[in-house]
Amino acid sequence: MSERVPARAGVLVAGAGEAGVRVATTLRELGYDRPIVLCGDEPHQPYQRPPLSKAFLDGKAVRADLALRTPEFFRDAGIEVRPGQRVTDVEVDDSGSGTATCEGGDTVEFDRLVLATGARPRPLPVDGGGLDGVCVLRGVDDAERLRDRLATAGRVVIVGGGYIGLEVAALASARGLATTVVEREDRLLSRVSAAPLSEFLAERHREWGVEFELAADVRELVGDGHRVHDVRLADGRLLPADLVLVGIGAVPETTLAEKLGLDVRRGIVVDAGCRTSHPGVWAVGDCTVRAHPHLPGELIGVESVQNANDQARAAAAALAGAEPPRPPVPWFWSDQRDLKLQIAGISSGYDRHVVRGTSPGADLTVLYYRGGELIAAESVNRPADFLAVKRALGKGKTIAPEPAADPATPLKELITDRA
Amino acid sequence: MPKIVFNRADGSQQIVEARPGASIMDTATRSGVPGIVAECGGAMACATCHVYVADDYLPLVGEVGEFEDEMLDDAAAERTANSRLSCQIRMTDELDGIEVTVAPEQ
């Protein structure tokens, strides 16, 4: 039984995922010496999520391989981790200090609050979502259920042609399972990537035997009252399925932020330093949205490990009174069988693109430009291109588009100052 | 358990016990060895776990893979004959005592 005397934290981090843990560890690296408390929702020690849809789902990694840090590390660093103690209520005064109540009833008093509450799977708004055999993939428990289901499944329907959906489709089809991806838009990855990459991936997945239903809506999940056996599309067709994965994105978890009256527009609105609309409250990771780098007036959420880490570093620097870190370059990766995708920058808003690659279907880099300047690149199996673009963007430089089309010329030799 | 000796960028040493089968990168990040950023968690996607393996151990850690080779060419710090991505070296009892120097930039 835990004690009921309120704990006192210099910084309370609500959420113990990648972003929350990085706030705590960065604070210590910066010499912050007050108590840090990290409250997590799930009853597990903090773990990495990217392998959940990759090595863990494939049985090549186990829970022990996922740990973000050892318990000894947290103990030695003086970071108190409270798994299974989601913050359910919080009050904050004008200075930023306040009191949080955790699941189970414990309270924590704090001087500063960081919201790292993450996101939850977007529910599919149709009947049948509660049927046995319908899965989501967000946490390790979800991944374990899906892994066990895949072992006995015959026909898999994946709703959503995003990264999660494609990673699972790559794995399911490799096991010889009949695999169909249903995507509402007319191309894959429409929310996060540009068209050339979508087409490249669709082509490869088709070679692997994955079928696509593009521009298709799901009307309902059909079952026998207990188990799912079909997915009905809006045009009435039935896709047989004994396993349905719903991977249609994530909804930022903003309950606490709303309770605090923070500016919430889909996600918690933060600035480059991860300050919320309350000067004493910070927010980091998947629960946040911020100004788009290229599209004025738009807010974006960037759901990636890189973003979680970089936002956490920015918030920790502010909390510790340290210099803000250099503006980060957004980057992302995905593994789909023999394809390694690496993406640097944010391509949305591009007005020109350049494609380079040596053999169709084997490798590809697409460079994206806006107003003549490089803004992003998406690479498949071309790691040197990815690293060159990431470096150029990090230094505020560009790569001339015409010579970049020749795949034999290393991009790192083409990095130049912006006009 | 086999041990890894990390030479840190500040000149100090940190000795960490590794679970056999875990990579050098895994072992470093979980124990908070400074300078091993390893943002991709071992997916060979970021080249931020660059280390220099001590000469004595170099013959024991296997060959640089094709993808790793390309990543190392463009890693932030200078590549030498001792350069490896530490996510690609799995610990075995044979590697007990392996000494690696953390690259100054990741």
From TrEMBL, chain A:
<dbReference type="InterPro" id="IPR028202">
    <property type="entry name" value="Reductase_C"/>
</dbReference>
<protein>
    <recommendedName>
        <fullName>Ferredoxin reductase</fullName>
    </recommendedName>
</protein>
<keyword id="KW-0285">Flavoprotein</keyword>
<feature type="domain" description="Reductase C-terminal">
    <location>
        <begin position="331"/>
        <end position="414"/>
    </location>
</feature>
<dbReference type="InterPro" id="IPR023753">
    <property type="entry name" value="FAD/NAD-binding_dom"/>
</dbReference>
<dbReference type="InterPro" id="IPR036188">
    <property type="entry name" value="FAD/NAD-bd_sf"/>
</dbReference>
<feature type="domain" description="FAD/NAD(P)-binding">
    <location>
        <begin position="11"/>
        <end position="312"/>
    </location>
</feature>
<dbReference type="InterPro" id="IPR050446">
    <property type="entry name" value="FAD-oxidoreductase/Apoptosis"/>
</dbReference>
<dbReference type="Pfam" id="PF07992">
    <property type="entry name" value="Pyr_redox_2"/>
</dbReference>
<keyword id="KW-0274">FAD</keyword>
<dbReference type="InterPro" id="IPR016156">
    <property type="entry name" value="FAD/NAD-linked_Rdtase_dimer_sf"/>
</dbReference>
<keyword id="KW-0560">Oxidoreductase</keyword>
<feature type="region of interest" description="Disordered">
    <location>
        <begin position="399"/>
        <end position="419"/>
    </location>
</feature>
<dbReference type="Pfam" id="PF14759">
    <property type="entry name" value="Reductase_C"/>
</dbReference>
UniProtKB/TrEMBL annotation, chain B:
<comment type="similarity">
    <text>Belongs to the adrenodoxin/putidaredoxin family.</text>
</comment>
<keyword id="KW-0411">Iron-sulfur</keyword>
<dbReference type="InterPro" id="IPR036010">
    <property type="entry name" value="2Fe-2S_ferredoxin-like_sf"/>
</dbReference>
<dbReference type="Pfam" id="PF00111">
    <property type="entry name" value="Fer2"/>
</dbReference>
<dbReference type="InterPro" id="IPR001055">
    <property type="entry name" value="Adrenodoxin-like"/>
</dbReference>
<keyword id="KW-0001">2Fe-2S</keyword>
<dbReference type="InterPro" id="IPR012675">
    <property type="entry name" value="Beta-grasp_dom_sf"/>
</dbReference>
<feature type="domain" description="2Fe-2S ferredoxin-type">
    <location>
        <begin position="2"/>
        <end position="106"/>
    </location>
</feature>
<protein>
    <submittedName>
        <fullName>(2Fe-2S)-binding protein</fullName>
    </submittedName>
</protein>
<dbReference type="InterPro" id="IPR018298">
    <property type="entry name" value="Adrenodoxin_Fe-S_BS"/>
</dbReference>
<keyword id="KW-0408">Iron</keyword>
<keyword id="KW-0479">Metal-binding</keyword>
<dbReference type="InterPro" id="IPR001041">
    <property type="entry name" value="2Fe-2S_ferredoxin-type"/>
</dbReference>
